[in-house]
Structures are given as structure tokens and as C-alpha cells.
Amino acid sequence: MLIQCTKTLLDKIGIKGTELASPEGHEDFPKSFLAWHANLVSINRRKAIVLMNNETRYPVVIYRPSSKDFSKIKELIYEAISEAFRMEGVRKEVIEAYMAKAGEISFSKTANRSMVAKMNNAVRDIEFMNEYLDEKSRIQRYISIVAGRFIQLSGANDSFYPVEKTLESLVTIFGIDEHVGVDEVLDIDLYQLKIQINLEGHDIWRRVLVPSTYSFRHLHHIIQTVFDWQNYHLHEFTVKGSKNKSLKIVMDDDPETMEYFNFDDFEMLQERFVALEEILPEFGEVTYEYDFGDSWEHTIKFEKNVKSKTFQVTFLEGNGERPPEDVGGAWGFEEYIRIMENEKHPSYHEMKVWAENQKERNLNSEKINQRLKQVISGYSYSTFVF
Q: In the chain, what are the helix, strand and coil shares in percent, each to the nearest 5?
């Protein structure tokens, strides 16, 4: 595996000119897929090594490397690339085969201005989505998933997504029957989850399939999407049954959450960096609260693991319409129902007008699944449904 480094990174690693490999010969496939450009940059005033695959432009990040880390940089690079592929659902055997084919890591200078420009674009993509950089981890798990889905230009009219090109390259380089497609390199655990709003006398729930490597931030986006919540209130996850304290998985980018958190009674994790696979199989059930005023509590039950070749969230089925936003909690919801069932009630017409912008819209499964394709990078409620 050839790592083509900027001078800044080569100096930091301590590679001398006589130890450098030739940068030539890795411009075209398949060797281009076995080579990466790398730079040492500053993001959020923290040092980061950004790697970009020569062929696919797929990015991988090693964040806040220490002085000792540079002495074992080869191991870190192997680990970072392997973990990025695993998070995408690439089969273990395929990852191992890629590493074996790429071979021992050698270092060289960067190839040419064009490749350096592409690497700089990859760095800008990382900087744009820097909220997915975990301060506590060297090997970044979620930034590649997001940045790897930024469209890239190639030539006058061609464009592609790094993750798609990476999977296609894995298929080609290992001689897998091209009629089978990229799904042959994938082995994805999907968690079947039933998400139920806890309202006495009402049966309101949704069932979904979610990749196990998705984070709890992704799960938040999924819940907002399948219930058509408007995503303008605070939320948190609670996990009961841990050995010492109950666990809160929180939206750590909210200042109030961090300032008023009760560390005496709860342990805390940051939802952007906690994978479903770390929690759900062990505990089986998680509570999600949305809107601390109305307090809409959802129970998320892990039903089973489903093997798949598709790295995608899928809405399966559901029942019941969620309460309108800002209706006033359980009591306000019952009052809303009472008024809407009586057209002669003096508040009926006023309530009906108000509810038009607050209640759940009637979206079919196809439309919901179309919206779920976007949850990998976020969720923003739109008044327009196309």
C-alpha cells in the first residue's frame, strides 16, 4: 500500500528522502485503488491526518495523533482504513483481502498538482462536517460515512460518490462476478426495531430496519422521519440496566444538555459517536424522549438481527398517528382529540387550522423510505413534501 504524503506529513513521520518509494505508477486502476494521498492538517485547532484514496477519493481520518502515534503510523493507517470499511458494512474477508493485496505500507511524495487539489477538497469536506469528529478517538468512525457521500466531479460531466466507487472497486479488484454487483462485498447486520410512543390508550408505533453501525444520532434522525416530527425540540436516549448507573445518550452539541447534566445519577455518552451495535444487542430496549416540555417518550425495542446486502434504513410498517407538535403533552393530546371529534365545539375550527401545521402528514411507505435515505447526514423538517 502506497501512502503519498505531503512534505508536512513526511517531516512529522520522520521519513528520509532515501527511504521514499517512487510515486509513479499509481495513477491508474487497479494500483490507484491500493494507494492513498495523505496530509497533516489542522481541524478545529486539532491535528488530523486525512487520507484520500487515489481511485475513489474516499476519505479516512486519524484525529489528534500524539507524538507516539507517528512511530506506529503504519498500524494506525491499517486500522483506520479497515474500520472505515467495516462501518460501511464491507465483509471482513473482503477487508482482509484488500489489505493483503495492498501489502506492506510504503511512503512517497504526492503525485501531482491534480491529486493534491483533490486531497485538499477531501480536507474541506471533512472540515465542513467536523461535528462528526470524535475528540476522544484517534480512529474516526463516522466522518468517513458522511464525507464519503459527498458528490465528486470527474471530467466535464462525470460525477460519482466515493462510497459507491469504493464498493465497485472492491468488486472489480477481487474478481467477483460483475453481474452480482456491489452487494457481494457487503455483509450488513440490520437491527429490526419497533419504536412505540408511550401513550396510554393509544397504539402508535413504527417498525424499521437500521444498520447496526449507525449512531444514536442517526437513530434520532430516523425517529424524527418515520413519525414526521419537526425536530425543533431537545431529546435524549436513556438505557436502563447497566451495572452501576443508568446511561444517558445525549445530544452533546446542545450547551444546556452538557451544563445541567446529572452526573451523580447517570453516566453520559455522546449520541454522535455511539453505535447501535454497542448498546442494543446487550440491553434490548432504549427509551427516547423528544420535547422535554410535552415529554413524548418512545420505547425502542430490539426485535432481531437481519442479515442484508444493503446499507440502508428501511421503514417496514407502522400504526397510529403521532400527537401534534406542541399540543401540550398527554393531557393536551386528549383535549385535542375531544375537540376534533366534535365539530360543534367552539374551539373546533381554530384547533383545526392550528393542527394543519402541527400534525403528522400522511406519507406512504415509499415517501418515508425516500426521506430515510438522507438520515445518514442529518434531518431537517421541511414544510414541502415532494
A: 35, 25, 40
Instruction: Report the pLDDT value the prediction gives residue 25, as an integer from 0 to 100.
Output: 86
Q: Classify residue 9: in a domain, yes or no.
A: yes
d(CA 136, CA 143): 14
pLDDT at position 228: 97
Pick the closest to residue 205 from 322, 305, 289 (CA basis).
Answer: 322
pLDDT at 236: 95
Cα dist from 64 to 42, 97, 105, 130, whole Å: 9, 29, 21, 13
Give the position of cell 436513556. Answer: 238
- The whole-number pLDDT of residue 64 equals 97
In a domain, residue 344? The reply is: no
The number of beta carbons lying within 10 Å of the beta carbon of residue 363 is 16
Does 181 share its domain with 73? yes
* β-bridge pairing 296-308 and 2-5: unpaired
Q: Could you say which residues of the chain have pLDDT below 70? A: 156-157, 178-179, 242-243, 257-258, 385-386
Boundary (domain end) residue, out of 129, 160, 185: 185
Cα gap 120→50, rounded to integer Å = 9
Q: At what angle do helices 216-226 and 365-372 cross, to 10 degrees?
A: 150
Asked if 267 and 246 count as a contact pair (C-beta separation under 8 A), the reply is yes
